[in-house]
Amino acid sequence: MASIDAALLDFQRLDRLAAGTSALHRLDPRAKVLVVLVFLVSVISFGRYQVSALVPFFVFPAALIGLADLPAGYLARKVALLCPFALVVGVFNPLLDTDIQLYLGPVAISGGWLSFASILVRTLLTVSAALILLATTGFPAICRALEQLGMPKVFAVQLLFLYRYLFVLAEEGGRAARARELRSFGTKGQGVSSYSSLIATLLLKTWLRAERIHMAMLARGFTGAFQIRQNYRFGRAELLYLCGWSALFILLRLTNPAELLGSLVTGLFS
Amino acid sequence: MHMADALLSPAVGGSMWAASAGAIAYSSAKVRRELDDRKVPLMGVLGAFLFAAQMINFSIPGTGSSGHLGGGLLLAILLGPHAAFLTIASVLIVQALFFADGGLLALGCNIFNMGFFPAFVVYPFIYRNLAGSCPGRGRETWVTVLCAVIGLQLGPFAVVLETVASGIAELPFGTFLLLMLPIHLAIGVVEGVVTAAIVSFVRKARPEILEPAATAAPAGGVWPLRRVLLGFLLLAVVTGGVVSAFASKDPDGLEWAIARITGGSELKARGALHQSLARLQDTVALFPEYDFRSSALKPEPAAAPRAERPLSVHPGTSLAGMIGSLAVLLLVVASGLFLKKRNLRKAYGIH
User: Fold this and answer.
1) pLDDT per residue over A218-241, tens digit each?
2) Any stretches that span the bilayer, and where are they (chain A) (predicted)?
3) Positions of E strands within chain B
4) Do A220 and A251 belong together in one domain?
5) Which of A130, A246, B19, B349 has a CA between 20 and 30 Å from the CA of residue B215?
6) B45, A151: Cβ pair inside 8 Å?
7) CB B277 within 8 A of CB B310
């Protein structure tokens, strides 16, 4: 089944971005996680008709893509391809909220369109922030950072396990799905009954695999937590990174540089 | 039905994060205490399994569409509530990061909607009580379908509540509910049928897998009525708090937003325009009682002067906002390109 393989490849490409060597990649993951958190909170704390004040926040994804040398086109495609729930729900705004909020010359813009634009911008910002966090940090490092920030150990182990076996099981599932596709005729043979036995077989195989893994781990002295060498230190660079971005986000939250710049430009010409 | 960051207000996102983090901490402690060591790799690998299973589609007869397994209820049946909750939460975290399904702040909502309901509400209260310890095949099937349907009604219901309480989307509560629930009723039935088929397959092939979860804690024994009521009371208080915070805050937030749009300049009340706009709004609003803005904008002469504030019509500032946004966007893109160029130059040793 081509689509599963394609999805898997895409997944691995995103995963491999975290192996970069830029200064940003080398920062302690805790700083990166916290900065993204501050970013998200300041973005979603805007009122629902705000558009222009949100635009300067694009500086964060843009600067990070530049600094970490991430493939901008690939990330942009990924963000654009996602059709999140937010847009489907937000699309009703222009229909339901039709009072005029502002005029652009002769064109009247209703509150619904404004708030829809706001939802669109928010989606772009929050989705790209999450993807960039992953692409600059990597999943295991994020887990470790969350654990250091207070996440329960059991849950951290769970996340690392899930990540470790994700690719293995997705490949196995992809093979099973391809085998089913080769043996079916159109949609005949792809119904609920064959699907259920396929998934159940996959489940049983998974279960046996888990038992083997457990025995192998016991043989190597597993005591309920992964022992990981600490590679990172929360030093001056991390502090600077955290404080710098947080200060910028708070500044952008409190002022509206886009509008200031705009009035400057229009002031020049009038 | 992943809830998205863009629809959330910080208050709702924060409280749902707190609720989910609490549930994760509780479940982790519970799993750790009853530490059946085998469960640790099992949970992880089953999470990965769920992922793989969600990638495979099946065709739904008669509709021409296809669906895939959600898996919350299946995990609860296989692992018991606490381990299942942790597994579902971990899958949702991976989805939020790799596929940006939902978002990082919406994670709290998503974990609650898709993990808490199947693992801590539907499975212990409904599935356990109806299915008993060793159900027959027919009974198991209908109980599973019923549970899947209930779980997939509670989840979307919570999504609607969270969205409406956040107040970013305009969809009124009733309409939104009517959009979400029937769709998820169908999804729930399909999910239930598939889950029942998988469970019965597993029961035939390896019955011992289903033993531990069913015998770990007898139905009803672990959940005395007092604790259940306490839980629901707590839930009601949290919900009430969120909703009331929203109700009291929103008009101010809106006024603030309008002040920002107009650039905070002095507004003069223009009588005729003001009234015609208000009339327009009254005729246009489909669900005036759901429309929180109307209370803030409706012209009420007797009210405080802030209610008198008309809709702003300020072509100069809105144009400025537009141009400014475009300029900032250009600057941002340029700076990103510049940083990238510099990196490339550094990499190839060009100065």
Assistant:
1) 898 877 777 766 677 888 889 999
2) 31-47, 53-72, 79-96, 116-142, 239-255
3) 58-59, 66-67
4) no
5) B19
6) no
7) yes
- Lowest mean pLDDT across B101-105, B159-163, B211-215, B278-282: B278-282
Residue A269 lies in a domain: no
On whether both A220 and A240 belong to a single domain, the answer is no
- Chain B residues touching residue A58 (CB < 8 angstroms): 328-329, 332
Is residue A146 domain-resident?
Answer: no
| A203: contact with B, CB 8 A cutoff | yes
Instruction: Report the predicted TM-score, pTM, of the whole model to 2 decimal places.
Output: 0.76
Q: What's the angle, vertex CA B15, arms to CA A36 and CA B110, rounded to 5?
A: 70
Q: Is A112 on the interface with B (CB under 8 A)?
A: yes
ipTM of the complex: 0.84
Range of the domain at A5: 1-138+232-258
A149 has a chain B CB within 8 A of its CB: no
At residue A232's C-alpha, the angle toward residues A229 and A238, to 5°, is 165
- How many residues are listed for chain B in this entry? 351
Q: Do A84 and B93 touch (CB under 8 A)?
A: no
Beta bridge partners of A102: A109
Query: Based on the domain organization, do A18 and A114 belong to the same domain?
Result: yes
Residue A29 inside a domain? The answer is: yes
- Which tokens sit at A237? 């660079």
On chain A, the residues whose CB falls within 8 A of the CB of B2 are 84-85
**Tens digit of pLDDT for each residue in A34-85?**
999 999 989 988 887 888 888 889 999 999 998 888 888 888 888 877 766 7
- Give me the pLDDT at residue B102, please: 72
* Interface membership of A237 toward B (CB under 8 Å): no
Nearest to B325 among A55, A93, A96 (CB): A55
B329-349 b/e with 16+ CB inside 10 Å = b?
A: bebbeeebeebbeebeeeeee
CA dihedral sign, ordered B342, B348, B349, B351: negative
- With DSSP H G I counted as helix, E B as strand and the rest as coil, what are the percentages for chain B, rounded to 5? 75, 0, 25
Domain ranges of chain B: 5-246, 267-312, 314-351
